[in-house]
Amino acid sequence: MTSSATKTNRQILDGTVWVFLAEGLILPTGLITAGFLTRYLGPQGYGLFTLASVVVAWVEWSITSIFSRTTIKFVGEAEDWRPIGTLVVRLHLWLSVGITALIWLLAPAIANGLNEPGLGQYLQLLALDIPIFSLASAQRNILIGRGKFRERALATAGRWILRLVLMVLLVGAGFSVTGAILGTLGSSLVELAIARYFAPTPWFQKANFPVRSLFGYAVPLFFFAMTMRLYDKLDLVMLKVLGGSAEEAGIYGAAQNLAFIPTILSISFSPLLLSSLSRLIADGNLTQAKALARHALRLVVGLLPMGAITVATAPAIVSLIYGETFLPTAPILSILIFSSLGLMMISIGTTILTAAARPKSPFFVVAPLLPLAVFGHWWIVPKLHAIGAAWITALVAQLGAIMMVVAIYRLWQIWPPALTLVRSLLVCGAMYALAIHWSVPSLWLLPQLLLLALMIPLLFLILGEFNRKEIAFVRSMLISYLPFFPSAK
Questions:
Q1: Which of 41, 87, 130, 389 could form a disulfide with 46 if both were Cys (CB 3.0 to 4.6 A apart)?
Q2: Closest by Cα among 482, 452, 489, 457 to 470
Q3: CA quadruple 417, 423, 429, 431: dihedral positive or negative?
Q4: 33-42: per-residue pLDDT in tens?
Q5: How does DSSP classify residue 309?
Q6: pTM above threshold 0.85
């Protein structure tokens, strides 16, 4: 491993650690929030909040995904980031305000289409989060492009912590679903304020940056983003449209929330990977860029044992977080966790293709997934209901992951290491056998899950997955984070 490669890997790992820790706050705060809301709102109220959140999240992530990778790439390469920053923020503002107005007008029709007339008022209120969230996302991407990873992490941490506090206070005070929505709005405002403090981007001054260059990447990535946003929660919407009740939607939405862990890692890692790959390619270090991309693919394959742990412990996890009422969530979670891993591979692959100046390729890879998923849900959901929706979602996501790996191979002739896949499957079997037979009291479940997760890299080490240079690199990172590490003395 060259000194240049070591420096790049160290920067990525350091940034990923901080961003992952910040994004990872969604686990304790999100799980506490979900447990609180399910108990205070009940299946029906939680189902209405989930449906409103899904619709608005579709819009928010569609807007931000249009420009996120493009912003990081161009800001990272620019000597003066302010012109591109101003242009991106302005585009976020115009687009988000226009779509917010559209959601306000269409909210009653959307609610009636989902057979929940009471949903309309919640959609209108939550739609106010769209411009706030979009501007905060633009500022976060600027921070990533500038290499301010810890500042980006701080903004996200502020969002998740305040979201929990506000929701508990407002819902506990009797504001019900409205209180949960107001908590969302307040947390988005805090994230925007923190991100803007660390990246004070001029919003309204003239932006001297060629729009054509920006949209050369943004437009094809827009079609990719729209396809993935439609696919992301398609299963929940199809379940409801095809006859599912609000209670079923709440149970399914609870499973989706718990299957979010791989998405957190993807959110933490992909932007940093894009920034690093773009710099390497711009500097002519294509060999190093390919090696980094292959390691990224290897990471996703190495996460398969997390799915095995989830399958084994799903009933205990659901019982602890949501209570006995939501136990039907467990088998759905056991399936959706593998959908999340497939979507992570798609995200990593899109990052690689974007850095390699192939912004159109991701859309062509995922375009067949949406109609295939719609047909699958239409065929299976009336027969198998929520379980059928989960199976279709997982199978189509895995197909998309395979197609993305093929696209990357055609570009750079790299695959995820075959031996890593073999070792990962062996670790999957071992972790499932251990987790399914290791029963602990509910209060000890979280420490158990942490210990199981820590055993995964240990088993990979025993199986010979890591070479000496990788072990030395990780050891050096531990020393930098832990001054009391023995060899630091």
A1: 41
A2: 457
A3: negative
A4: 888 888 888 8
A5: H
A6: no
